[in-house]
Amino acid sequence: MAQVAFGVWDGVVHDARNMAIDAQPSISALKNFDEFDDGNPIRAFFGDRGFFVFDETVSLVDALFHYMNKAAEESCGACTPCRMGTMLVRDALDAMRRGIDSPLDFDEIEILGEQMTETSLCGLGKTCSVALLDVIRNFRDRIEKEVAAKRPIRAQHGMAYMTAPCIEACPSKINVPRYIDYIRDGKPENSLGVLLQKYPMAATCGRVCVRYCEEACRRKFVDEAVGIKTLKRYVADQQKGPNALKFTRDMIRKPLADGMRVAVVGAGPAGISCAYHLLLQGYHVDLFEKHEQAGGMAQIGIPSYRLPKDTLAMETDIIAALGGRFLFGQQLGRDFTVEDLFARGYKAVFLGLGCQAGTALGVEGEEHARDGYHRGIDFLLKVHDHVAGVRNLDLSGEVVVVGAGNVAMDCVRSAVRLGADNVHVVYRRTRGDMPADDEEIVAADHEGIHLHTLTNPTRILTEDGKVVGVELVKMEQTEPDDSGRRKVRPIPGTEYTIPCDTIVAAIGQQVEDEAMVESDGIAFNRWKCVETDDALLTSRPGVFAGGDCVTGPSTLIYAMSAGLQAARNINDWIQLGTIRFFKRTRMRQLLEDNKILANDVVETPVRAAYRVHNPALDPELRKHMFGEVEQTISNREAYAEAQRCMRCYRVYSVITQHSIPEGAT
What does the record list as coiled-coil region(s) (predicted)? Predict the structure, then answer.
């Protein structure tokens, strides 16, 4: 375990050299700080809350130079304290480490650091001097000793990393403040470019993303979180018609030889993302999809009132524009095997199979329910076909949907549009425990859904195979489980019956055709998901997997993130025969494992201004149609919302014993 020699964190001075360690237990609990990469010890760490030194021989002057150099590079220049202060301090430290006369002494550097902390207009300027001031105020004797002889200080190895709470919360690590900056500057095309570095489905994500970034947004401590998802949609929707960004093969910088072919199985968000990044790297990519359209769960599982299918098609078509090839009606295990793909000359295979098999309720009478019983995904597929005009789906009477995730909310809101008289949601926990996006729950409320919480089905009632009702039991909360969420149990004697004509079981999904996939040498874990390592490699060499088939039913943004990671690792596997070390990923692990990002807000001078919301159709109107409910905000509204971002950037750096391997980011 790494032992801290000295440092300052959250204003508390730690100095193991004289045992004045009031909070030693918290220091000794640092996780994974021994080595940055294999055989490369971490000597020091600097951040927005202070610094730790593990190796007493570290040069603080050189370490602070690299830290302030990153801050100066990333300063937006909007305010003088940060723009000028970071450069002046950096240049002064640079002169000191090179052994020449510095334009500033430590007293003057301290004054500049204080000015930046007190008067900068964003999080970067307000926090980048914290470690600097901690060193000057508490370990000045060490830095004065370092520069006393006016000799060059040996340069140290390490890296600096800039991030923000919203970036770290995003599975794809989108640089959210940067794309918001471009909106503020009136350059939505540049903003879109930031998004396209990570995934091609910006307009789709701008409609259905579950907004992990907004949960982490520090603006919520002032008034409301910035409408990051709303702005993403705005940026993507600016690129329609004559302003549309055209994808062509000219965008591929270095096309590879014809033999550099990769097979992607599943044209859902994970597969589309993986293919997109492989194509940009010059590979020849074929996508095998069992359905006749691309999009996966985004196509069949998200109703068109949330995600118009022409919007989705516009983004999946990017693959063909870049030279990729869709092979529809091709199912793994039925029409081909992994062995077949390698025999055809593909260098690697990515499995983005998704979870398109529904889960049964497991209650009495379920096996007899034939007419009026659906599993969640099957129901949404029928809704998709109904809207597409392929086959008609009529609902009437009472509909009961069991479950409270996003799939369940899509089912209930679709049932309303299909003509159900009343739609009921049955959920065994409380409303606060519902896993669906809160916006979807509120929208369902507005559309007249009846919510039955702390209630669970015990029996499905049928007559000649036709659903006629469901027996429910009341539940009560008990002690918390290992995750901290309270368990529930049925209350004896509280059973009652709801008459209904349709029951939809929307309680989970799993991978289809697991047995056929396993027969190809692909191992599954006890949760019936494809088993992979950290590089998304499966049990079969050269076969990678990602998305719902690995994690279980998750979100579109997680699937696209997996596609990006897989494409990066597939490239390494083919070109190098191994997976490279990624230093930015390692830094993110340090931040996450040790909860380095403080869960508070640095006070910045902002005016209270509540967020802009997407205009939406009136609930009484939208209940009768599958047209898109939410609309895009205006240019004026987008500019106003972008102004609310506080740019909560933070800089972190490590000093290491040896140089850090150069991998991708």
Answer: none
Tokens read off for 522: 């692909």
Is residue 85 included in any domain, yes or no?
yes
pLDDT confidence of residue 17:
65
CA distances 359 to 510, 512, 551, Å, are: 7, 11, 16
The Cα–Cα gap between 364 and 461 comes to 9
**Contact present, 236 and 321 (Cβ < 8 Å):** no
**Nearest Cα to Cα of residue 44 among 31, 21, 60, 30:** 60
Cβ-based neighbours of 257, under 8 Å, separated by 6 or more = none
Q: The tokens of 338 are what?
A: 């992994």
Segments in the chain below pLDDT 50 = 20-26, 664-665
Q: How would you label 72-83 residue by residue, b for 16+ Cβ within 10 Å and e otherwise?
A: bebbbeebebbb
Query: What strands, in cross-sheet order, belong to the sheet with 422-426?
Result: 373-375, 502-505, 398-402, 422-426, 450-452
Give the list of residues 6+ apart from residue 492 with CB closer than 8 angstroms, or none.
none
Rounded distance between C-alpha atoms, residue 402 and residue 507, angstroms? 7
Distance between CA 569 and CA 461 in Å, rounded?
A: 51
Asked if residue 68 is part of any domain, the answer here is: yes
Report the residue count for the chain. Answer: 665
CA distance between the termini of the chain? 27
Are the C-beta atoms of 348 and 543 separated by less than 8 Å? Answer: yes
Of the candidates 169, 302, 186, the one whose C-alpha atom is nearest the C-alpha of residue 226 is 169
Closest listed residue to residue 177, CA positions, set 603, 541, 644, 638 = 644
Q: Report whether 296 contacts 266 (CB < 8 A).
A: yes
What are 89's two structure tokens? Answer: 């301090």
Structure letter (DSSP) for residue 245: P
Q: How far apart are CA 646 and CA 285, in angstroms?
A: 41
- DSSP 8-state assignment for residue 158: E
Q: Which domain holds residue 17?
A: 6-164+649-656
Question: Which residue's structure tokens are 């994500």?
Answer: 205
* CATH number of the domain to which 441 belongs: 3.50.50.60
User: What is the model's pLDDT at position 20?
Assistant: 46
Q: Which helix (H) or strand (E) holds 563?
A: helix 556-576
Q: Would residue 561 count as lying in a domain?
A: no
Q: Read off the amino acid at residue 292.
A: E
The DSSP symbol for 493 reads: T
Check residue 245 and give its pLDDT: 77
Residue 391 burial by CB count (10 A; 0-12/13-18/19+): exposed, middle or buried? exposed
Domain boundary among 445, 472, 507: 507
Give the pLDDT score at 25. Answer: 38
φ and ψ at 261, to 5 degrees?
Answer: -115, 140
Site of tokens 């098999």: 357
